[in-house]
Design a protein that fits this description.
homodimer; 386 residues; alpha/beta
């Protein structure tokens, strides 16, 4: 049997400041340094929707790491195409760091699940209805070909309001899959172009005792980092924050803590306050395509008639290339005319706002001003648009 | 009655090289110099579809002038919004030169025409079916508010295969409208923020005698430049090139010659060879959105299965930012996945190819090598993809 002792990690993580439970640090990958807390734009099908990679690298965004979705890429274009094109970085033309999820969440949220067995999950593709099967071993193999710096263990993601018994059953399955993910990951390490880091995922739905047990037993297996999965999936927001507040500080202090799929700018700041280091979320891109801008004074719905002649930028305090050039009136016109540029500009601004917020979070932690930052940020974001 | 004597023009045009009938020159506007022959990307509704303005300004495109469509902007967002936002340049955030068409062509191609009278055209909006009326005076007023450096006279654009009698009737109407456009333009000049140049449009369908008459009588009215309208609207390609070959050299040599709405890269080169200075066309943007790339070796349909694993750029000889970074395989994947980035990348590359072709055309004319360039360009574009 393959040893489960961790190999020399391809990832190093060093904390350089703490302020309350909030932490600032550096995650070092072979593709460069990532300052934490970090927000990772979601690049579902090999593209962060609506934005060019050069813009993600530009100073006003400067995304250090993006996420790729194993489920989407596995189904289309398929792993043989990505292998033939030299892995995901080469295929899409992105040289900075990447993290791939395991596919577990997308199977739950997008596909029609046919059967969850001990072996894995049988489901129908949301693209063409084809019958597919995903397991820890297959997820690790696919993620190995994708070749991101960070891979995720294959988990089952239950609904937020699942009862204790079902949540425990699901958690136990996720734990067994975590061990199999680790074994498969270690077994294939030698055949990979480079050693990927592997993160374990803490499940347990809204049940704190299960969350604690999941954390303890996932930590026993031993991963390069730990994620909180299965939040923001239907539970109430205070429930989510309570779980984060309880679980995050118990997670290994010397490893990155990643809150999956969360959330609004306020969620990010509140979760950092509870000790989280890494985030991803589709909100800035998805809501951008739907006409919503995130600003320092809350959400702005560009469809609103009040912006018809409004020559101000989306956010008057924003330094992004969109706010430096374009008005609310113009973006509203583009949106109503169905022009692609509306999505492009709103996506860019939203990502800039999320990434800039995290930059300010890091600065606040490093200067011991995080509590003040958090208070002012929260007050301002609830103050309403001018 | 208002004088029809030309005012001091806001536009100066100077030829600095000739090679056969091909001309190279400089069109000077208050918003900078435009080297001709020039291709103008089409910014229909205040956006060149699928591309950010910063990309149009980047070195690999460096578009000096873009086109705005009066018809579209008049209907949406409407002229009061654009007036309130300080004119079209301010509204969209573009500081380089612009040309607006008169709306005549779009009424013909998009709207449901109700009635063409001496006074103007009554039609139903393609957006909401609203009854609208456009005349030379209204077009001039709208174009005055838009505030482009170059405005176009309001014309009637008949179908390509219209018979001689109907074409003559339409041409006569266009001539009367040209005079009224000029009068309205002169009358409002004092009230405008800056003096716009006004171009007249030569019509006459496929009838050479009418084209010549239209040219002569349009020139008599006197404009800052002259356009050939009503081509590439259903007539055969040799008919189009014959008309250009006959008409372009007869157009005033000291004014810019603009061929409206044409065409493929080959059409551009062939029309330059016949003496044309300015072009606009939706092909690079529209075909880009439909998965077609223009390359130095002809058209490339990105949907084609042969590109599945093709790690080469769209065009191996292209220096644009897309070809420097992304493969055919990746763009094909994006296109099949319905990702916006496919349109963005194909649009960018296509515009780069059109604009770079015109740059090479100018260099060839200036170095007396245009005939050689034309021959090699044509041979290569018909040689087929590797």
């Amino acid at each position: 049997m393959t040893s489960l002792q961790p190999q020399a990690s391809s990832l190093s993580f060093e904390l350089d400041a703490k302020d309350g439970a909030a932490r600032a640090g550096i995650l070092q990958t072979r593709r460069g340094e990532i300052e934490t807390p970090v927000f990772m734009p979601v690049g579902t099908a090999g593209t962060v929707k609506g934005i060019r990679f050069a813009e993600l690298e530009a100073p006003d965004l400067n995304a250090q790491i993006i996420l790729g979705n194993t489920y989407h890429l596995w189904l289309r274009p398929g792993i043989e195409v990505i292998r033939a094109c030299g892995g995901l970085h080469n295929f899409i033309g992105w040289n900075r760091a990447m993290l791939t999820d395991s596919g577990g969440f997308q199977v739950w949220s997008l596909a029609e699940i046919r059967k969850v067995t001990e072996e894995g999950t049988e489901f129908r593709s949301h693209i063409d209805g084809a019958l597919c099967f995903l397991s820890p071993e297959i997820s690790m193999e696919v993620q190995g070909v994708l070749g991101a710096e960070i891979a995720m263990a294959f988990d089952e993601c239950p609904p937020g309001q699942i009862d204790h018994e079902a949540a425990k059953r699901s958690m136990e399955l996720t734990l067994r899959w975590a061990r199999r993910s680790k074994e498969a990951h270690v077994a294939q390490a030698g055949s990979l172009h480079h050693r990927q880091a592997l993160f374990g995922i803490i499940q347990g739905a809204s049940h704190l005792d299960l969350r604690r047990e999941s954390l303890e037993r996932t930590t026993e297996i031993g991963f390069d980092g730990y994620a909180i999965g299965g939040l923001s999936v239907g539970e109430e927001k205070p429930v989510m924050l309570d779980i984060i507040e309880d679980i995050a500080p118990r997670m290994p202090a010397d490893k990155p803590r990643y809150l999956m799929g969360v959330g609004t700018p306020e969620d990010l700041v509140e979760s950092v306050a509870r000790g989280v280091d890494m985030f991803d979320c589709v909100l800035p891109t998805r809501n951008g395509r739907n006409g919503q801008a995130f600003t320092s004074r809350g959400k702005l719905n560009i469809k609103n008639a009040r912006f018809t002649n409004d020559t101000r930028p989306l956010d008057e305090t924003c330094a992004c290339s969109v706010c430096q050039r374009h008005s609310r009136a113009f973006i509203r016109h583009l949106y109503l005319a169905g022009e692609m540029l509306a999505s492009i500009l709103l996506t860019h601004h939203n990502l800039a706002f999320f990434l800039d917020t995290m930059k300010r979070v890091r600065q606040a932690i490093r200067s011991g001003q995080f509590a003040k930052f958090r208070r002012e940020f929260t007050e301002q974001i609830h103050s309403g648009l001018e």
